[in-house]
Amino acid sequence: ILNVEQSPQSLHVQEGDSTNFTCSFPSSNFYALHWYRWETAKSPEALFVMTLNGDEKKKGRISATLNTKEGYSYLYIKGSQPEDSATYLCAFTSGSARQLTFGSGTQLTVLP
Amino acid sequence: DAGVTQSPTHLIKTRGQQVTLRCSPKSGHDTVSWYQQALGQGPQFIFQYYEEEERQRGNFPDRFSGHQFPNYSSELNVNALLLGDSALYLCASSLGSPPYNEQFFGPGTRLTVL
User: Fold this and answer.
1) Using CB atoms within 10 A as the burial measure, which of A70, A112, B21, B27 is most buried?
2) B45, B46, B94, B97: which to substitute to probe chain A, counting the most A Cβ within 10 Å?
3) Per-residue pLDDT tens for A26-59?
4) Could you give the strand order of the β-sheet that contains A72-77, starting from the edge strand earlier in sequence?
């Protein structure tokens, strides 16, 4: 059984604060790590797909890093805005699987 | 491009009934995966269809079945509904098979079983 853990489960930050979340996953047989942003009543939106140890990806104020040897990824949001409020999901794929194995997500609320 | 669409948006059924959920993939995509998201959990993989065949299946009973049509759209069928089947059902499409390929999700169908 593959276990993907995300922390924290939820957090509230003030507008302008920077924040980060953690995703941990099995380090053996790693293939890819995906980050999604999911706003209420909308479809999950893909942020990043990362495959190589040491990968760093950036999209505007959001960035992510990947450590496949120790099995974790960080998602950073710089200068949080109220529109960043969403649930952030990470999903792991092993080499033998075709499906995404998701964590339970981090629910972010950015207070104006 | 309409993206991934799902119907219906919401559905209420009673225990023992059967339900069919529908998914149209993003234009150009040929692979459809179905996920179940129960309250407080991340989405759980049900199965994936490619070339009208079930390619891989998650840990779900045979009451969950699916179909993919020649136009790549897909249906998820659940028989003998249980209260525990109440969840958000998400459809995701991709070109070819993950894990490399990005999966695009629809907004989901909210199923309530009474």
Assistant:
1) B21
2) B45
3) 988 888 999 999 998 899 999 999 999 999 999 9
4) A5-7, A19-24, A72-77, A62-67, A56-59
